[in-house]
Design goal:
The chain has one domain: Winged helix-like DNA-binding domain superfamily/Winged helix DNA-binding domain (Arc Repressor Mutant, subunit A), CATH 1.10.10. It has a two-stranded antiparallel ribbon. The chain has 3 helices and 2 strands, in the order αααββ. The relative contact order is 0.20. Helices cover 40% and strands 22% of the residues. The chain is α+β, with helices and mostly antiparallel strands.
Length: 80
């Protein structure tokens, strides 16, 4: 097995996170967006959303979005 140099590891990892961001459909929001709208902390909002999702009251789906310098899958939530 070939050993990769540090710069090669960077290239491999960067390629794994590359690609196009998804277009997030209208109505889907991140924990951060919902927390900002409601005035609750992100931690409290995340806990409440997790419970609501487990109860089947909201939908959760991961969309790849740009988070600073990389594109990552981020959970989004939809209230029907």
């Amino acid at each position: 097995m070939q050993t990769l140099l540090n710069s090669e590891w960077f290239d491999v990892l960067a390629a794994a996170n590359s690609g196009d961001a998804d277009e997030v459909p209208e109505g889907w929001k991140t924990v951060r967006e919902i927390a900002a709208e409601t005035g609750f902390s992100e931690s409290h909002t995340w806990k409440q959303l997790r419970q609501l999702h487990e109860q089947g009251k909201i939908e959760r789906r991961r969309f790849k979005i740009c988070t600073g310098t990389t594109i990552r899958p981020v959970p989004h939530y939809l209230h029907p």
